[in-house]
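User: Some background: our group keeps a shared notebook of sequences we're curious about, and every so often someone picks one and asks for a predicted structure to add to the entry. Today it's my turn. The entry only has the sequence so far, pasted here. Could you supply the structure so I can complete it?
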Amino acid sequence: MRDAVTAAAAPLREDRTFEFNERDFARVCRLIHAMAGINLGPSKRDMVYSRLSRRLRQLDLTRFSDYLDLLERDIDGEAQTFINALTTNLTSFFREAHHFEMLNAQLRGAGPGPHTLWCNAASTGEEPYSLAITACEAFGTLTPPVRILATDIDTGVLQTAARGVYPVERIAALSAQQQRDYFLRGTGPNAGMCRVKPQLQALIEFRPLNLLGDDYGLRGGYLAVFCRNVMIYFDKPTQHEVLRRIAPLLAPNGVLYAGHSESFAHAGDVVRPCGRTTYAAVNGGAMR
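Assistant: Of course. Here's the predicted structure to add to the notebook entry:
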């Protein structure tokens, strides 16, 4: 878990092109927590400087304080650019593979469908495409009775996800059969790249969504919600609030999949463990 800024934090480095002081860093921490729930600790100062200094350079600014003033006025929708810059996107195909084995079994036992799944940290797309491949394998067809909603707060990575184009190294860990069944290899100027097959893309809707937003605008009834490696960036009160919003969106037999380092014991009034880093809604889930 990332810790909040503390008064005992070490002094900021002085070798900065842009003026960046302790007050500026504290403002960044407050703003990203308010906008996206991300809880930055003192160790993230250099990361903040590195990522946001690019934006200051683009805007021809010399002081972080001037940028943060602009941000607080949200001129030209700067808030989304700020969120995109500070969002961490670490992902891969079939990351934490045991969850996809569980999902395969869940889909096989769920009946003919249709079924809806939600991946709420879609990043550059590897996770939702892994969900789609799992659905295809569970039903033995490229057109399974499954619809996948893939959301992320970062609009930049969603564009990459929707394109579904990756260096071939990204799929190296997949079996040769999976590579043939679900990807097209580039040739000529596109050699070294691969594209997700259109049938797989057709199963997924990519949409921006902030888990701290007032209204998700979702009907619910999700058989599975993948909310993995998201909560590690939130403090416990924020985790509880997000879980309180997600739990009613699960189908009565729905499962919430969490990351390997995430535990929701503090939210026992909302979700209960039902497997290895998986949870069910305490009230059994509810259709909306």
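Suggested note for the entry: The domain at 22-86 is CATH 1.10.155.10 (Chemotaxis Receptor Methyltransferase Cher; domain 1). The radius of gyration is 20 Å.
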